[in-house]
Fold each of these.
Amino acid sequence: MITTIEKNVFEGEGLARFEGQTVFIKGVIEGEVVEFSIIKKYKNYTKAKLEKIITKSPHRITPKCPLSNCCGGCDFGFIDYDYQAKIKENIIKEIFQNFENVNFLPFIKSPLVYNYRAKTQYPATDTKNSKRVILGYYKEKTHDIINIKYCPIQPEIVDKIIEFIRNNWIFGCYHEKEHKGLLRHVNIRISTTNNDILLTLVLNSKTKPDIKNFTSRIISEFPQIKGVFVNLNPDKTNKITGDKTYLIQGVDYIIQNLGKFRYKLGGNSFFQVNPHCAELLFENAKKLIKNKGNLLDLYGGSGVIGIFMSDSVDKICLVEENEESIALAKENYKLNNIDNFEIINSKAKECIQKFEKEKIMFENIIIDPPRKGADEETLSGISKLTKNIIYISCNPMTLRRDSLFLIQKGFKLKSVQGADMFPNTHHIECIAHFEAGENA
């Protein structure tokens, strides 16, 4: 069966038509003529597999990663970078095409196309007989681990550290089905400011094991590693880390700069995985601040966004439910000599309800919710607390849903701007700007 790809759509697939049916095919580019086979037919569409490229796009390149087909993580790695950015920009415009008078601001490209990923989380296992350690990413839609020795989107030092662990870890690795074995994940965080590294070993254990000899050896081999943690995760769960983390050796944080601001990062801290692009993203978000005044930093984490906005507002109120992030936020404000802030340890919805009840208003509210977006109660509450909302999203579809809700509450979607936080993948970050309408 042969068809022509009409366009690339959300999550990167190519959309085509065949015998009156919409067909979705991975690994293709708009304009290509391809041969395909059917994977599964649904009521309104068909999932298909690429079998052969008959007419190749001029934007198709050879992926830098030799495991790109079986890994699937860099699912845009076969497209030249400028065209990747164009596809993502077009996807955003299509998602928001039915919104009135939206200004689509220029797409923010990543300064780095490769070696940009400052945080790596590799699941671990080992072979049954030889006990050879396997570290890598899960094969798409499976829990089979691909043994990755080279990943072009992360710094080269990560490959070297992983290879050292592969060759020197003697304590056994995790097997998910049996829920047995010690090493579950290896997490590596790098500061792009000074190349300092924090290493976290996630272990299937209720107690802290004695691995000091191993950690001493790896720090000796890689002086860039400033701290090694052990995280205990004995539960049968898909969650990567458990609740208890111990510093085994070295220091418990590294410093990451964004613009003129400095941030302490711990082993489990949330921080954008592409700091180079994050700085551009935040600079553009800052331009949307109106009238200074008080800024509510909702889902504020360790204070990254609020601190970046601090020189454009009079006061920041950070709301975050994670206590570890709260502690780090306090340190980050202190590190940057910022004292015009308040930190509230609370779930977003509960805090917003309290503000609403007490009629506490903000000149600006900035939200950066999880991938699932914000819940309606939270959105409804913030719509009553401000006239200016800046929404940073890692999922354009949940952003679209939440935008429709805010519009129902009297706001206007003024602008949307895409950012490429994850080059060579289909993922898209967005900044959306809302202002209260005349009747809000």
Note: Residues 98-112+273-436 form a domain with the Rossmann fold fold (CATH 3.40.50.150).
Amino acid sequence: MGIIKYVKEEIQIIRERDAAIKTPWEVFLYPSFKAVTRHRVAHWLYTHKHYFLARWYSQRTVRKTGIEIHPGAKIGKGFFIDHGNGVIIGETAEIGDNVTLYQGVTLGGTGKEQGKRHPTIKDNVMISAGAKVLGSFTVGENSKIGAGSVVLSEVPPNSTVVGVPGRVVKRDNVKIPRMDLDQVHLPDPVLADLNRLQEENAVLKKQLLNLGARIEQMEKKENQKAQKPADEAGESKE
């Protein structure tokens, strides 16, 4: 019954988050379903110190699905990887409930440090395609990581992060990513900076033009003042 319940939950999760699915039977073809289900087995082997068997089983999963999850990684309920090819999850990564990853996501470390060296992803986080989350820090619950972002530091809860390196561009947007899987309509801090620079440049240009016009008027007045005594001197000689 435990297995049947688990399969039903996985079917519900995939149907919620992937509009392409048409029948429940398709779930068994999903790389995410295979990778996560097999990871549960590999993680059990790992926690019972069957390290070689755990790694052997996880590596077979990589070859079958293109998704690499170290058997030591801790993954909560409701985890979904859309498409999944190129996803890498490190040994000490911890993933909460109802987390969604897209293809090409890396939850990795930053070197050969010991102990906890991979990120902790809290509940209801969505990490978009190609994003890299590198280091031992926490991504707070209900957060979104934009496509292609490189996140190297702590992310507060209810945040949206975009860019390289990633930076928080929105706070307290508490929509649950499990139901809000929009990867496109996120703030663009680079575009915002460029727009601000263009506005400042337009203001400076206007100020320079005004200053140039004032200088021209002053020069004209000075020329007129210099010309007036010369004209008066010419009239007196006549």
Note: The first strand starts at residue 68 and ends at 69.
Amino acid sequence: MLNASKPMKQKIVYTSGTFDLFHSNHLRMIKYARGLGDILIVGVSTDELVASYKSPPTIPFEERFQIVEALKLPDIVIPQHSLNHADLVKKLNIDAFVIGDDWTGKYDYLRELGVEVFYFPYGKGVSSTNIKEQISQNYKSLIRKSDEHGNPDIVK
């Protein structure tokens, strides 16, 4: 008699973010999530969602989505319209959720739905907010230098 064993369930991992000014910490978190399971779904927050809790992204949603979609790591990339992932977890049968540790504690409610929650150590220094601040400071410095220079001597 043949052994008709059940196929093993594949572990589905979900991670999400704004992914504005895509940088190395974004990539590290997605790589980490990829290593936790068999199928990786990455949610990219819409402009409207991001603007509901912080300043709007610099890069428009469609471009951020295309950047993440072009990576080899995700199996599926989807728009993220809400910070509440309870319905998404149920609809997509998500087994594990990965988010940056700047959100520590905010997604513990998913554990009640049987989801493993991982708060990825995001790392210091590299963030879209810090990159924007650095660009702003550099720009202000350039403006200051151009405003403070003396008039050139005009030779006739």
Note: DSSP finds five helices and five strands in the chain.
